[in-house]
Structures are given as structure tokens and as C-alpha cells.
Specification:
6 helices, Dna Topoisomerase Vi A Subunit, Chain: A, domain 2, 203 residues, 2 domains, Helicase, Ruva Protein, domain 3, two-stranded antiparallel sheet, alpha/beta
């Protein structure tokens, strides 16, 4: 059986480790790169190395940035009384694009997922307790999944146990979940509809 050259095989294996990339997709990507000029590949390799060399983790919110603290944490115009907890840096970017939230963030870099061996100690979770001084609203913006809900509940319980003195003044809220704009009710599942009904508001 004809084998691919070693250099190709090794790179295919690396691509296969990326989320959403299967063996066939990995091979297509490698052969696409193979047909690029060497200068393009060198530039591509430099950009990959820059991912680690030119980015830092914000020591306050754990967002990936070019400087520490990140631009959001360093922005004196942000609302310091609001702290929004998100799972991933991409969730933070999505909320920023909405231009509706102007407080601070806390990025967990994941959620509690026992089946994937991810517990509270693998996340930037307990750091939240250090950031609650002056915060009057903690917004849980974890994903509407079983893991996201469990993570949200864990943080809430942790605050009640470790910082009981904050319970009187700290409002803990959960972002609303429900039907997306343009969706048909008849195609929505029961959980989505239940969330939509819970999150109803006056008009």
C-alpha cells in the first residue's frame, strides 16, 4: 500500500487534532498548503508562532489580548458594578458586538464537564470571588447547555458558601434563553420554549 510522505502524514495528524477537522479535511488542508509558494508557508508558520509569542492572558478577566491588563479591563469608562461570566473568549467578543453591555467580563475558558474530565479546578472559576468588590450584578452568560447550566449553578453556590456577606447586595442574573429571531415556534424543542416563556417581558 502506497504511503504518503512522512512530512505530509505528520502534518495531517496535527490538523486532525483541531476541532471539527476529520481525516479527509486534514488531508485536503495539507495538500492545499503543499501547493502554496514557500513564502506563503513561511508567513503562515510565523503567524502560528505569533499566537503564543504575541498574546497574553489578561491577569484580571483572563481574556486573550496583546497586553495585560486587556483593553476592556483597562478602560475606565466601563461599568465596574457589572461582571459578566462567559465560557470562552469568543463569547466575550460576541457580547461586545451587540454593543448592549458595558461592564466587565470574566472568562472561564470552558465549563464544568465531568464526562470530559473538566472540573472547577481546570477553569478560571474561583478567581471570580476576588473580583466581586464593588460589583452589584453578576451576570451568568454561560451557554444554554447542561454543562453551562451546571457551571452557572456551581458559581452561584460557591459565592453563597464562600462570600455569604455579599448575598444581600449582589444580584446574580442569568442571560435569557429562548427563541431566536426568525424562528418558528412549531420547530422549537420543549426546553427552548420553556426558557422563552420564563424570559417573557412586558410590551
Amino acid at each position: 500500500m502506497l504511503k504518503l510522505p512522512k512530512a505530509i502524514r505528520l502534518l495531517v495528524e496535527k490538523f486532525e487534532r483541531l476541532p471539527g477537522i476529520g481525516p479527509k479535511s486534514a488531508q485536503r488542508l495539507v495538500f492545499y498548503l503543499l501547493h502554496n509558494p514557500e513564502s506563503e508557508l513561511s508567513d503562515f508558520a510565523d503567524k502560528l508562532l505569533a499566537l503564543k509569542r504575541e498574546t497574553v492572558l489578561c491577569s484580571q478577566c483572563h481574556q486573550i489580548a496583546e497586553q495585560d491588563p486587556c483593553p476592556i479591563c483597562a478602560d475606565s469608562s466601563r461599568d465596574l458594578t457589572q461582571l459578566c461570566v462567559v465560557e470562552q473568549p469568543l463569547d466575550l467578543l460576541a457580547l461586545e458586538r451587540s454593543d448592549q453591555y458595558h461592564g466587565l467580563y470574566h472568562v472561564l475558558h470552558g465549563c464544568i464537564a465531568p464526562l470530559s474530565n473538566i472540573g472547577p479546578d481546570q477553569l478560571y472559576l474561583r478567581d471570580i470571588l476576588k473580583r466581586l468588590t464593588g460589583v452589584t450584578e453578576l451576570i451568568m452568560a454561560t451557554n444554554p447547555t447542561m454543562e453551562g447550566e451546571a457551571t452557572s449553578m456551581y458559581i452561584t453556590q460557591l459565592i453563597r458558601q464562600q462570600k455569604p456577606e455579599l448575598i444581600e447586595r449582589l444580584k446574580i442574573t442569568r442571560i435569557g434563553h429562548g427563541l431566536p429571531i426568525g424562528a418558528d415556534i412549531e420547530y422549537a424543542d420543549g426546553i427552548t420554549l420553556a426558557r422563552a416563556l420564563e424570559g417573557r417581558r412586558n410590551i
